[in-house]
Amino acid sequence: GKEKGNVKPQLVALLSPDVLQLLTVIGETAASENQNAFIIGGMVRDILLEQKGEDIDIVVEGDGMALAEKTAARYDGTVSVHETFGTATVTFPSGRRVDFTTSRTEYYETPAALPTVSRSNIKEDLYRRDFTMNAMAASLHPSDFGDLIDYFHGRDDINKKTLRVLHNLSFVEDPTRILRGIRFEQRFQFRMSKETTAFIHYSVSAVSSLSRSRITSEFQTLFKEADPVRSLERLDELGILPIFFPGAVWTSQTKKVVETYLDSPEKPEDLPEWFCILFCLYLGQAGSIPSAETAAVTKKQKSIVQNTSLLLSLLNEKEWNSPGRFHSHAYHIPEEALFFAAIAADHDQAGFLRQYQKKRRELRPLLDGHDLKAAGLKPGPDFRDYLFSIEQKMLDGEITTRKEALQFIRQHK
Ligand code: ATP
């Protein structure tokens, strides 16, 4: 049933006067058309947690688009309508944005067989949401401003610091909610209810229906907001890590690699965080890097996986001490792969790799084709080999000046 409760005191205490006034006006405008407007979702949750809600979501029993237009007109805002979602965003001159949605309307047959439009149903809207704490609304109507609509006992769950889904098929409907749940647990220091955890386990087969891009974007959000190590620990505890990324494991070894990555001062810039962290879960397992390709989405990511794998087998072949000789196998390997191989390799190998990487980065050509011609060489494919040999000698510290490079050419032509 509908829980009693009113959050007006919290709204007054937590919101700035202009936001409070805006909500009042929205409620009054809707009421003047015999409609009801509510704040809904994350904002209501944040208010009950005594946090300032940043995003304002309004749901209207009536015409959300029209209310958006009126609100924008009154405050000199602009409206953008998203037809497919049936939502409108009002952007105010201050930059603040408010989303308006029309609560779904149900049609059903009356006994007299005349189709009737039921009163638009906010319960329906709330029922489609993820967790009880996100499934509350508060009225903006002047007659009951602040009255809480809480069909699923979200307020009780907030008081108990419990994260609870609304029904047993919630994760089957949308398995990304599993990752949202882990994120909310950490953000608010909540804990999933026992049944919620059980529902996760019933839903594992539904994860395969998610597209790679939905999975990876949820992981990106999770890692950005929460502590990646704790999130991975939680995924492991729930036993669902390999469901999202087959072959990924959480062991003391992979944990160490993840931590080394997170502590690295110079992380690869052009790779998304989710990929880097996930890749570490494969890198920490001796010999199973190729399976990391399942976690690589783009061509670039696949190339990083392959090249890192190539580097690690190169390092295992023998003990390297000449960066110059190593260069002939590794000159084409991208920086990012050097980075990942270094965080996965043992201490000495990592030291060698970092030294190679640093020297390679500092390489500046001492000679060009004109110099070779001037030194009496015939232009041709040999040019490249000569220049490469000089690079190798530079990496080994045997050539440091232009003069030494020219001398090398004269000796070897
Ligand atoms: P945040 O502070 O991270 O923005 P939020 O709760 O506002 O938290 P949003 O992702 O903006 O998060 O979602 C807004 C609301 O929409 C949520 O409170 C929830 O009610 C609902 N919602 C969002 N994503 C889902 C989902 N995957 N399944 C069900 N409901 C969702």
Topology summary:
Elements: H1 8-14, H2 17-32, E1 36-40, H3 42-48, E2 56-61, H4 64-75, E3 78-82, E4 87-91, E5 97-102, E6 107-109, E7 115-117, H5 122-127, E8 137-139, E9 148-149, H6 154-159, E10 162-163, H7 170-173, H8 176-188, E11 191-192, H9 194-202, H10 212-225, H11 228-237, H12 241-244, H13 252-263, H14 273-283, H15 299-317, H16 323-330, H17 335-344, H18 347-362, H19 369-374, H20 382-395, H21 402-412
Parallel strand pairs: 2-5, 10-11
Antiparallel strand pairs: 1-2, 1-8, 3-4, 4-5, 6-7, 8-9
Helix pairs in contact: 8-10, 13-14, 15-17, 16-18, 16-20, 17-18
Bound molecules: adenosine-5'-triphosphate.
Looking at the overall shape, the CATH architecture of the largest domain is 2-Layer Sandwich
The residue ranges in which pLDDT falls below 50 over 5 or more consecutive positions are: 112-120
* Strand composition percent: 5-15%
CATH topology of the largest domain: the name is: Beta Polymerase, domain 2
* Tally of discrete structural domains: 4
